[in-house]
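Working notes for the structural subgroup meeting. M.R. asked for a predicted model of this chain before we commit to crystallization trials. I am recording the input and output together here so anyone reviewing the notebook later can reproduce the run.

Input as submitted:
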Amino acid sequence: HHSPQNSSTDDINIRHLILTPNSTTNPSSMSSDTAINNHGATQDLKPKVTPDEALSILIDLYVADGFDDEKAKSIGSLPRVEVIRELDSYDDVNYLVKIDGEKALLKIHNGVESEKYIAARGRKRTKLNDGDSPGTSIIDLHTVIFKHLESSKYNVTTGRTIPPKKSESNNRPDDSGVCIRELSVISPEHGPRHLAIRLQTWVHGAPLSSIEWCPLETFVDAGACLGRVCHALDDLAASDPDGAAVRASERYHLWDGKNLMDSKPYIPHIDDVGRRRLVTGILDAFQKDIIDGG
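Returned structure, recorded in token form:
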């Protein structure tokens, strides 16, 4: 995810936009227990990467040998590579970093999505039988979306994937700009794991959550930006000829609004009685007014 610290009205959290209300996936095909198990897996397999390890990743994967003389003069005595701070993330690890004085976002994906990505890449290299479909993953979907939104006709500012240095080409499964490294995860018994890594350009701007007051026009601009993204994603298939990445958007997702009732098993874990009643009331109203009410 893009972290809240890396947000502006034009900085789009792609994962939260892919809600697929017309998805062909049947929500009933995954039980609440399965959803909770998947949730637990992403937390167990969340990367455990220290700032020093993040620095090592940057140097190994993204810093070409030697200094560019003109670049060195322009940045003066600044270090070639810096890890500024870790950013908020639900199940991945994100770092704000600098390379040659330029801000960037280093993302290390969780073990669940990384495993699916690696498996999908292997399946794409395998000759498929008639009727078989190529593999896909959410990381593939991210790659296609970011590439798709680079088109100037959509007028949307998003992070651009920064490719690794040429000497790393043999360590990447394809040309998506994603690298693979064996790293630790939160759960010691499940690690280390091969995790997917991506470096993206930084989207400058102040997150709305950090602004105490802003004019109504700011929210109008934000809504217009989201509208442009939605229109752009309507045409996403044009950037995904085999349809493999787009199919990843059809997977079950507990955060999808239509699957709201599957969050009921989490309610007992809310310690505050008042908050627990509040959530229960919202779910009951959703069941009555939306699901049963048609």
